[in-house]
Design brief:
By secondary structure, the protein is mainly α. Helix content is 54%, strand content 6%. Helix 1 links the parallel strand 1 and strand 2. It is elongated, with a radius of gyration of 26 Å.
């Protein structure tokens, strides 16, 4: 896998996945012109300090404390104190894969060359990513407005040898890990700690990983829908290209085309065409492209926003050496990521709800068109003993309820904090964490549905008429969970299938 050049290359969601899951290496551009621009940025900042310019977070305190002046001789100590007082995170810890995405997002933003950090800072961060030295970061404590200050303080600290990291599966001090990896700890120059911390990299990195997972969930929902249509003797006509060309949302058209392709040669409803009651299917089958399509199109604009944020300068102040200007603004505000995550939570929630409704059809003999109750075929001696997917439907309903509860937007709960300086905050990091939870829960709902449709088509027959993709999907499900001929615990099988659905892809 090719190295990822940082500094001049536009970084995509796929690039993030290739570093996190595919072990692609990152390399800060060593182009001479690029390095000169980084150096010019730093030199102008240092010159401005010597000329006595008041620079936020460099020769002043932070936030509401910016009214307090800091002498040039204390400018470096100020950066150290910034890291220390923000290390007050709580709760669980980010997974090392998530931390790699966060570190990469921070590196990309700083490498744009407007943050006043030395080239050596970029190199050190890149080396830590390549060595997979991941700082331990607590997930709680960011309001996502003046950047992800609290969680990013753990990354900033680790570059100096402060705190603990995970390396090769072990927890050890950052200083020890850097020493063993042959990486020289850095000492912050003025503004550098603030530049590392004052950005949207936590919410952006987390959202980038979630977007890849949501793409997979949409694909799985389309495959499961096709299998449900077959098992329930549904009407493939609902996915006819001509219908969806007349309501031409991109996601809807793509979803309908996928379901139609998966059905391949399956006739599904042939025996029911003369029955008026079965002239068309219920919404959870017939309208599946309209539901999955919303998720696809929401994901499309969310990826666009995520990549814009990823490739942006999102700290404060911004050093414009070309114009010999230092600009103080609010690019650290995570409003776009917060809004995108909240929208994705709702769209993914509809996927979970759709899956739960399809499952309800499959297990209920009143609607399943001849499938056995709860999808289990019992011999005469065991009639009434086996309950098949009854418990699975209850579990699916519980998971779906939690997904829907979690769809409440985080971004709307803005608070006033930091002595009224941060009086309108994005809560983007909370929204991104909610999104990860939504994706996890939905993967389990779709795992249960995948097990159910595999069971249903095994009972109904006809899967050989479906597409090669469906045949491969069915084989994979069966490799993780054999046909259910009598009741057994299914918890481990649900988790195995859910993990497969979200299998990391480079």
């Amino acid at each position: 896998m090719m190295d990822l050049s940082i500094g001049k290359q536009h970084i995509t969601i796929q690039n993030v996945g290739s570093v996190v899951y595919g072990n692609a290496k990152v390399k800060v551009s060593d182009d001479r012109i690029y390095r000169d621009q980084i150096e010019a940025n730093v030199c102008f900042l240092q010159e401005s300090l010597k000329n006595g310019m008041a620079i936020y977070g460099t020769t002043t305190g932070f936030g509401d404390s910016s009214k307090q002046s800091i002498s040039e001789k204390n400018a470096e100590e100020l950066q150290k104190r910034l890291v220390q007082y923000h290390q007050c995170g709580t709760g669980a810890k980010f997974h090392p894969d998530q931390t790699i995405a966060i570190m990469l997002a921070r590196l990309v933003g700083l490498a744009k060359g407007y943050s006043g950090v030395r080239y050596s800072i970029l190199e050190t961060l890149a080396k830590m990513i390549n060595e997979r030295i991941t700082p331990i970061i607590f997930v709680e404590g960011s309001v996502g407005a003046s950047g992800d200050l609290t969680p990013l303080s753990y990354i900033a600290g680790s570059l100096t040898g402060m705190g603990e990291v995970v390396w090769n599966g072990k927890i050890l001090s950052a200083r020890e890990a850097l020493e063993k990896a042959g990486i020289q700890p850095i000492k912050f120059a003025p503004k550098e700690a603030l530049a590392l911390m004052n950005g949207t990299s936590v919410m952006t990195g987390i959202m980038a990983l979630a977007c890849s997972d949501i793409q997979k969930l949409c694909e799985v929902m389309e495959m499961a829908t096709a299998m449900a249509v077959l098992a329930l003797q549904g009407h493939p006509q609902a996915f006819d290209r001509r219908i969806h060309e007349l309501k031409p949302f991109d996601g809807q058209k793509k979803s309908a085309q996928a379901i139609s392709r998966y059905l391949f040669q399956a006739t599904c409803n042939a025996q029911n065409t003369s029955e008026p009651a079965n002239i068309q299917d219920v919404y959870s089958l017939r309208c599946a492209p309209h539901i999955i399509g919303v998720a696809r199109d929401t994901l499309a604009y969310a990826i666009q926003w995520a990549e814009t944020e990823l490739n942006s300068v999102n700290d404060n102040p911004i050093i414009c050496h070309e114009d010999r200007t230092i600009l103080m603004g609010g690019n650290f505000y995570g409003g776009y990521i917060s809004q995108a995550c909240d929208s994705l939570k709702i769209a993914v929630g509809h996927l979970a709800d759709l899956a739960d409704r399809q499952l309800a059809l499959l297990v209920d003999e009143k609607f399943s068109k001849g499938l056995p109750r709860n999808l289990v075929v019992s011999c005469a001696e065991e009639v009434g003993l086996n309950h098949g997917f009854k418990g699975m439907q209850i579990a699916s309903s519980a998971l779906t309820s939690e997904v829907l509860k979690n769809a409440m937007p985080a971004s709307i709960f803005s608070r006033v904090t930091e002595c009224c300086n941060q009086d309108k905050i994005s809560l983007g990091t909370i929204a991104s964490r909610d999104l990860i939870r939504t994706v996890e829960l939905t993967s389990r709902v779709l795992a249960i549905l995948s097990l159910a449709v595999a069971q249903a088509v095994d009972i109904r027959g006809g899967i050989e008429k479906m597409s090669p993709e469906i045949l491969a999907f069915h084989r994979k499900i069966r490799s993780l969970s054999p046909y259910l001929s009598m009741d057994r615990p299914m918890d481990k099988e649900i988790e195995l299938v859910a993990q497969h659905l979200l299998q990391p892809r480079a």
